Automatic annotation (TrEMBL):
This is Glycosyl transferase family 1 domain-containing protein. Residues 250-432 form the Glycosyl transferase family domain. GO terms for molecular function: glycosyltransferase activity. SUPFAM superfamilies: UDP-Glycosyltransferase/glycogen phosphorylase. The keyword Methyltransferase does not apply.
Length: 463
């Protein structure tokens, strides 16, 4: 397994750039980034202080100052939903919101990831409390706003609030990220029609929920808001720092055994069948066969799968490794464990593959992160990916399922043989991110939703 960048690389960078601070920022699919930033002299610091005050004054979430917000997550992990909710917590804390966090499903045994994420929240002023405590019930009753994160968080309502559920429904915003059918169960979403609103990451997912709840459960969705996500400032700063990107790229490639001139295709998601790593590896193998048959001149090609976890996906992980071994690709396919530091791997690859299957990604945060690094995207023509990637302009789309393997293989060959196309698509993707998918875009979109939810609660006499 490849280890995340070592302490020595950061030290080297600090020596090169005078003094660098390492900041940890969060990334949906599952991702958190490292910010490498130069320190400036006192005059520039003063200028930054003034600029930050101006930004604070113009923050669209300023009206949330002193409000009490309860965030309820079904779990606390490195997956997309919890990390997005944490990002919202930090955005609210920046404007002085009182934020309380509850994790409904918490492991009994000590968990290093949970411990780390909880303390990160505590350090940022987010209060963390037990999901089943009386304090949690009291906070829910007093809160100005409650955000339920993912459909599974609905279990918390009856289990903890019990007779008080009806009192809090008018001030609940339900933030939904799921695209799978097994979430449509009465015990999870029976209260959904009565909450103040649902916030969903893409139009495709919103339409799916509208149709599925009606057809399967006979219930109507509440007022639904589609809010596309945005890259946080920390991610954008490292993406736009050429020195940081070069050092990260060199270090990761060296650790993988990939030369600078080699082509590296990367898929960055938690390893599972739904994310399509198996079909990607088949397509990668087929692309190598196509190149060999046509005697095309291309750099040595590699693939990296970031997001492994043998402890949870043993059967599927074993299938992937057996395929690699059977096709004699051990020197060209690399597996990397789940890691908080995904930015180095984005910096290291040349093309991102977003191969989520069935209905695709709800949104796909890693897609806009890769585009920020000026990478073309090869994605499935499904779900939120179609609202991000412009086919033929910022990347190339292929169908989901087995029928998408050959088209994906052909797209891999196309980008492998056309350097100018890769660069042009990467540049176009970066421009699209700057236009639509930045933190301030997301903040404005979320702010408009929160205003309406608060007005809804006020109209119901809850404030």
């Amino acid at each position: 397994m490849v280890k995340p960048p070592s302490t020595s690389i950061w030290i080297t960078m600090q020596r090169k750039r005078l003094a660098l601070m390492i900041l940890l920022g969060f990334s949906v699919s599952t991702v958190v980034v490292i910010l490498l930033r130069s320190t400036f002299d006192s005059c520039i610091v003063d200028h930054q202080f003034v600029e930050e005050k101006f930004q604070s004054a113009s923050n669209p979430l300023t009206f949330m100052k002193s409000k009490l917000v309860l965030l309820v997550s079904h779990e606390l992990s490195l997956s997309g939903g919890p990390l997005l909710l944490m990002e919202l917590a930090f955005l609210l804390r920046e404007v002085g919101t009182k934020v309380v966090w509850i994790t409904n499903q918490k492991r009994l045994e000590e968990d290093e990831v949970v411990y780390s994420l909880e303390h990160k929240m505590l350090n940022r002023g987010v209060q963390v409390m037990s999901a089943k405590s009386q304090e949690a019930t009291d906070t829910a009753l007093k809160a100005d706003l409650i955000v339920l994160n993912t459909a599974v968080a609905g279990k918390w309502l009856d289990a903890v609030l019990k007779d008080n559920v009806v009192k809090v429904l008018p001030k609940i915003l339900w933030w939904i990220h799921e695209m799978r059918g097994h979430y449509f169960k009465p015990d999870l979403v029976k209260h959904l029609p009565f909450v103040a609103g649902a916030m969903i990451d893409s139009h495709a997912t919103a339409e799916y929920w509208k149709n599925r709840t009606q057809a399967r459960l006979g219930i109507k969705m509440p007022k639904t808001y589609v809010v596309h996500l945005g890259n946080n400032k920390e991610l954008m700063e490292v993406a736009e720092d050429s020195v940081a990107k070069r050092v990260l790229r060199e270090h990761v490639r060296e650790s993988l055994g990939v030369r600078n001139e080699d082509l590296l295709f990367g898929i960055i998601n938690s390893v599972s069948r739904g994310k399509g790593q198996d079909l990607f590896l088949r397509a990668f193998h087929d692309s190598l066969e196509m190149i060999k048959e046509k005697k095309l001149q291309v750099p040595t090609m590699h693939a990296v799968v970031v997001g492994s976890d043998m402890s949870k996906q043993t059967k599927f992980e074993t299938e992937l490794r057996n395929f690699v071994q059977g096709k004699k690709l051990q020197n060209y396919v690399h597996f990397v464990n789940k890691t908080l530091t995904v930015a180095p791997y984005i910096a290291a690859i040349d093309v991102l593959v977003q191969n989520s299957q069935a209905r695709g990604e709800c949104f796909g945060r890693i897609t806009i992160e890769a585009m920020a690094f000026k990478l073309p995207v090869l994605g499935t023509a499904a779900g939120g990916t179609m609202e991000i990637v412009v086919d033929g302009t910022t990347g190339l789309l292929h169908s989901a399922g087995k029928e998408g393997v050959i088209p994906l293989a052909k797209n891999i060959v196309k980008l492998a043989t056309q350097v100018e196309l890769r660069l042009r698509m990467g540049k176009n993707g970066y421009e699209r991110v700057k236009e639509m998918f930045l933190e301030h875009h997301m903040s404005h979109r979320i702010a408009s939703v929160l205003r309406e939810v608060l007005q809804h609660a006020k109209a119901r006499g809850l404030q």
